[in-house]
């Protein structure tokens, strides 16, 4: 750990948060400036006034009479966007508020304290960093993050930040709650594909959960930078909590659509594992994160996937003579190996899995 931390520091590590805290920043440093073709069109209303993004009341899943209607809503959302928002999801507002509070306290710590967990090794189970990978990114992204494995909680929590003292308890409660929620969502999505709801039951019990806690500080020039580049997530589902608006998804016409902030709602994004399992019936959603000039934005991305070495492939029930398997199999570990040596802004990992018949 000490050698890794030292290499990051020696590489002139400067986080987006540290730049903002300096108080004198009027322009973003050159390394954050995107090529013109990749810059966000802030203030543009492309898609935002012509498209309605799905919001689903998840509590209705528990009503046997209404469950089929909710499953159909989820099917339409997955086919249309690979994305939906959920309300009445069962995670209390106090648990959400406490998690955001703990994250705020962590990112407000002195940089030397946070750098105790600094690493540019994507395989490290708990790591603090900036951009995507500070040591390899050609263009940097206006983000600080702390990522940690979160399931089973008892296995990983001792490695989490000890400062602030409330972090383990408050973020731990949120991580456990999202793990329960993930199980409900996977069952519903499996049903919506015509599979048994317990199709992935064994994998869910042993699944990998990575909590990516993100801080996007106020940015002096948000029109030429991004918090995260366009990408899709590697896992089955990502459950996202955001403190304010900033997420954008790409629609079927390749337009960027702003995801509205809804008080108390959580965002559900399909990942590459669901695209592969569904044999392309559902697609993982391409998304990015914009930044703003006026305030700091926080998000919790609870990234769920099959166990580290467990391979996923198209469900046999969704493969036939007319629709052969369109993807090769892969595991979470395969994804980590890929991003260790490849630029995901140049090629999505899932594109390497697609077969010629797609």
UniProtKB/TrEMBL annotation:
<keyword id="KW-0408">Iron</keyword>
<dbReference type="GO" id="GO:0005737">
    <property type="term" value="C:cytoplasm"/>
</dbReference>
<keyword id="KW-0479">Metal-binding</keyword>
<dbReference type="GO" id="GO:0046872">
    <property type="term" value="F:metal ion binding"/>
</dbReference>
<dbReference type="GO" id="GO:0005634">
    <property type="term" value="C:nucleus"/>
</dbReference>
<dbReference type="InterPro" id="IPR044861">
    <property type="entry name" value="IPNS-like_FE2OG_OXY"/>
</dbReference>
<comment type="function">
    <text>Involved in the regulation of shoot development and salicylic acid (SA) homeostasis.</text>
</comment>
<keyword id="KW-0560">Oxidoreductase</keyword>
<dbReference type="InterPro" id="IPR026992">
    <property type="entry name" value="DIOX_N"/>
</dbReference>
<comment type="similarity">
    <text>Belongs to the iron/ascorbate-dependent oxidoreductase family.</text>
</comment>
<dbReference type="Pfam" id="PF03171">
    <property type="entry name" value="2OG-FeII_Oxy"/>
</dbReference>
<keyword id="KW-0539">Nucleus</keyword>
<protein>
    <recommendedName>
        <fullName>Fe2OG dioxygenase domain-containing protein</fullName>
    </recommendedName>
</protein>
<dbReference type="InterPro" id="IPR027443">
    <property type="entry name" value="IPNS-like_sf"/>
</dbReference>
<keyword id="KW-0963">Cytoplasm</keyword>
<dbReference type="InterPro" id="IPR050295">
    <property type="entry name" value="Plant_2OG-oxidoreductases"/>
</dbReference>
<dbReference type="GO" id="GO:0016491">
    <property type="term" value="F:oxidoreductase activity"/>
</dbReference>
<feature type="domain" description="Fe2OG dioxygenase">
    <location>
        <begin position="207"/>
        <end position="306"/>
    </location>
</feature>
<dbReference type="InterPro" id="IPR005123">
    <property type="entry name" value="Oxoglu/Fe-dep_dioxygenase_dom"/>
</dbReference>
<dbReference type="Pfam" id="PF14226">
    <property type="entry name" value="DIOX_N"/>
</dbReference>
């Amino acid at each position: 750990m000490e050698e890794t931390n030292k290499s990051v520091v020696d590489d002139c590590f400067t986080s987006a948060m540290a730049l903002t805290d300096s108080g004198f920043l009027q322009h973003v440093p050159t390394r954050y400036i995107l090529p013109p073709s990749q810059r966000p069109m802030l203030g543009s209303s492309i898609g935002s006034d012509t498209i309605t993004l799905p919001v689903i009341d998840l509590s209705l899943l528990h009503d046997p009479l209404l469950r089929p209607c909710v499953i159909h809503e989820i099917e339409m959302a997955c086919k249309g966007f690979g994305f939906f928002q959920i309300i009445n999801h069962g995670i209390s507002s106090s648990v959400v508020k406490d998690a955001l509070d703990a994250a705020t306290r962590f990112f407000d710590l002195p940089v030397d304290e946070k750098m105790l967990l600094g690493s540019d090794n994507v395989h490290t189970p708990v790591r603090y960093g900036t951009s995507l990978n500070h040591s390899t990114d050609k263009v940097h992204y206006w983000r600080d993050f702390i990522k940690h494995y979160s399931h089973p909680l008892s296995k990983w929590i001792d490695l989490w930040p000890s400062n602030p003292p409330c972090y383990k308890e408050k973020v731990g409660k949120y991580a456990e709650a999202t793990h329960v929620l993930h199980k409900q969502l996977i069952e519903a999505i499996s049903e919506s594909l015509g599979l048994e709801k317990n199709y992935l039951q064994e994998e869910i019990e042993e699944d990998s959960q990575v909590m990516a806690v993100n801080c996007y500080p106020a940015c002096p020039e948000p029109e030429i930078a991004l918090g995260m580049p366009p990408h899709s997530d590697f896992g089955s589902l990502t459950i996202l909590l955001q403190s304010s608006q900033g997420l954008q998804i790409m629609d079927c016409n390749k337009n960027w659509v702003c995801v509205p902030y809804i008080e108390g709602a959580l965002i559900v994004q399909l990942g590459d594992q669901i695209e592969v399992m569904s044999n392309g019936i559902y697609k993982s959603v391409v998304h990015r994160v914009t930044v703003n000039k006026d305030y700091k934005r926080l998000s919790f991305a609870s990234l769920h996937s099959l166990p580290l070495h467990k391979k996923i492939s198209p469900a046999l029930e969704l493969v036939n003579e007319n629709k052969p398997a369109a993807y090769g199999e892969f595991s979470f570990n395969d994804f980590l190996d890929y991003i260790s040596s490849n630029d995901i802004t140049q090629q999505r990992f899932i594109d390497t899995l697609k077969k010629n018949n797609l």
